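YM 10:42: Alpha amylase inhibitor sequence, as discussed on the call
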Amino acid sequence: MQYRKRLSGGLITAAALLGTALAASPTATAAPTAPATAASAPALRGTAPACVKRDVVKHRKYVKVTNLCGRAMHLKVVIDWGPDSRCLTYQHKQQWEWTWGRGSYGKVVTC
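YM 10:58: structure's back
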């Protein structure tokens, strides 16, 4: 019984120290200060809008993406635990197919 009291007291102390450390740390939403260079990889901006049509067949590891946005879009297919497509520019009504061997379909993002 004595051991449990010491263990729980130690856990309370560890939790208090962790809470203090988290409160002192900067927020994770701070903007990066380094400017982007032309040689750096393109930044992902988020999930592609609904005007980008996705036809996914997960068990065949296949996706066909069609740009119906009315303007050129910079898009990339993200594969979870596998190779992503490159970030490329696709014109209105242009479509393309992407297949992969390892991983599973994640999403289409703008870049």
